[in-house]
Amino acid sequence: MGCWRGARFLLIAAWGLAALAGHPSGAAQAATPVDEVVERVRATCLRTQDLSAQFHQTATNRALGQVQEASGLFLAKRPGMMRWVYEKPEARLFVTDGKTLWVYSPSEKQVVVQDIANALTSRLPLSFLTGNCNLATDFTIALVDNAGTRGLPTTRVLDLKPKQSEAGIARMLLEVTTKGYTVEKTTLFDAYGNTTAIALTHLKLNTGLDDQQFRFTPPSGITVVTPGKP
Fold first, then answer.
1. What is the DSSP letter of 17?
2. Torsional sign, CA 138, 141, 147, 150
3. Which domains does the chain have, with CATH numbers?
4. What's the CA gap between 111 and 212, in Å, rounded?
5. Percent of the chain with pLDDT over 90
6. pTM of the predicted structure, to 2 decimals
7. Would you say 59 and 1 are in contact if contact means Cβ atoms under 8 Å apart?
């Protein structure tokens, strides 16, 4: 996938992943099963300050019949900081301090630098980055039963559809385990039927990640590209 399309999907996926990371809350039981899961998600999001995990990404291009897989390390910290370290199939780095997005390709000896708001076509990731943990504000949410993506019986799958038309997001599935209510996987669907699925393993929460991990200084000899600027 293209550099900027990849960045947008990664940040949107991270919105879903970070919102679901954590342990069950002590909130009262909600009126319906879906309300209960959503409330636990909201409460967990509110108290999650940072997280780290290994990720595996599968991107499918429906029109071309192509499937691309990648893996690496994902870090996130409030407010608005994220770091994706791609290790396979090639080294690549996406990192933001909440204001600036750096996309660094060692093989191309180039880093693309852009304001985070300009790098996204959807307002939803920015909503999360600024601290909105209430999924029900922007999405119509349902529980998916007996779906192929459900996995074990201890997994709950939330089906999220934007209440308003959003560029790049037609639907999003969020898979949560009831054993601690941590995220297992998020799957994004665009308007063309393409999907980007990201699964997390070895999740660690609130370990006190250093802010310096969410900044980037280009190495010597690297070309710096700033889209929209002369």
1. H
2. positive
3. 3-225 (2.50.20.10)
4. 18
5. 28
6. 0.80
7. yes
